[in-house]
Amino acid sequence: MEKKNRIIIFGVLMAVAYLVTFILGAASGAIHPACYAYAGAVLPLIFAFIYIYTCSIIRGFGAATALNGFILVLFLIAGEADLPYIIGTVVLTALAEILRKVFGYDTIKGVRWSFIPFAFSFFAYTSHWWFDTEVSLAAAVEEMPAGYDQLMIPVINNIPVMSLVRRHNLQLPVRNLHYGQSFHCLRSRYTHNQEN
User: Fold this and answer.
1) How many distinct structural domains can be found in the chain?
2) Which of 81, 87, 100, 126 could potentially form a cystine with 75 if both were Cys, beta carbons 3.0 to 4.6 Å apart?
């Protein structure tokens, strides 16, 4: 019973850490629209640690579902979830869960491959700029300082840079999972859990 309570507590802590990371990414838009649009390239470096730890707690189905599901429910309640975000999140979460099952719940390979779609989760949130541009620009006129919508237009229209950012988004977290400290942390965490 104590182990189950510990899993729930750490699972909730990881979900809250993931929420804080998401909010920081969204708040970066106050600096410049490019920060909001491209924050998804940097956030996976933080997501990796949260996801890895969650995978070490949830040893079967549910690590990506718990994290993205927590955010999705909160954003639905707050009225922040639009259709592109909902569809993107559901698809990316399903892909992450499928890849983790295919490559093994208790393997580093399963965590590594399942992290690739999970790493794009923040881009699902920002995708409304490209899928619903007119509404996004109108919302910027209402909610942001004067001229913010004009700063958004070149960012939205710069598809080549977005493509490079998304490519970068794929490479960095996978390298981080492969070579970084997080990989060693996960290995020791799995070893520790198997001994207990």
Assistant:
1) 1
2) 81
